[in-house]
Amino acid sequence: MLTSSVNEAVAFIRTDPALAAPDIELVWLPVPVLGEGLTPPPAHGVTLAVELLQPASHGDIRLASADPAEPPVIDPGYLTAESDLHGLVAGLRIAERLFDTAALRSFVGEPMAPWPGKVDDAKLATFVREHAETAFHPVGTCRMGSDDAAVVDCELRVRGLDGLRVVDASVMPRIIRGHTHAPTVVIAERAADLIRASKHEPESSVPRPAFR
Questions:
Q1: End-to-end CA distance of the chain, in Å?
Q2: Among the three residues 113, 131, 149, which one is the final residue of a domain in this structure?
Q3: Which domain holds residue 89?
């Protein structure tokens, strides 16, 4: 079992053919995953997770008080954009159809709790609101950009400080549509080139290429 990543297969799909790019990722797991994965399953099973790739919902972080030692007030704002809820419901409908295909029908049985089974869109939306979780791919906490609100510039240098760069997924201006590992490697490779160039050339002669 330890040779498996558990996420054995994925598919990036469009819930609407008119979309320019996939909006949902389907993740196949050959085990039942209930709740946060800490609840012992009642039987053997499989899971098809539906992940929204680029949520439109926005939360906020606020100071709780003038005391710097007091934790901030964090409101992630999950599913505050109706489009996010609609996208997840549409993705779940596709997952239902996949489980009902000839290739899988003979291998799966009744749904495990808390999955409600075949219900209407309103009840399915309620299920999403009550049970949806995050997928832990955080980005954007040190956003890169050319505007005054950006934390790092287009060479990953922290604004207002000398000799400090941020080189990880936190510099991404927004969440990407795929997994964050490969793009983070690209960012690191680019940062290595920039750092090497800055050490071998006068600052005034270092090129300032655009970075996307």
A1: 39
A2: 131
A3: 9-64+72-131
User: Strand, helix or coil at 123?
Assistant: helix
Q: Is 86 a catalytic residue?
A: no
> In terms of domains, do 118 and 152 share one?
no
Count how many domains the chain has: 2
| Mean of all residue pLDDT scores within the chain | 88
Considering the domain architecture, whether residues 159 and 175 belong to the same structural domain is answered as: yes
The number of CA neighbours under 13 Å toward the Cβ of 143 is 10
Share of the chain above pLDDT 90, in %: 59
| Nearest CA-CA partner of 159 in 167, 151, 149 | 151
Residue 40, domain CATH = 3.30.560.10
- Separation CA 133–CA 11 (nearest Å): 19
User: Pick the catalytic residue: 86, 137, 181, 200?
Assistant: 137
Sorting pLDDT into bands at 50, 70 and 90, what band is 209? low
5-37 confidence digits (pLDDT tens): 888 899 999 999 999 999 999 999 888 887 665
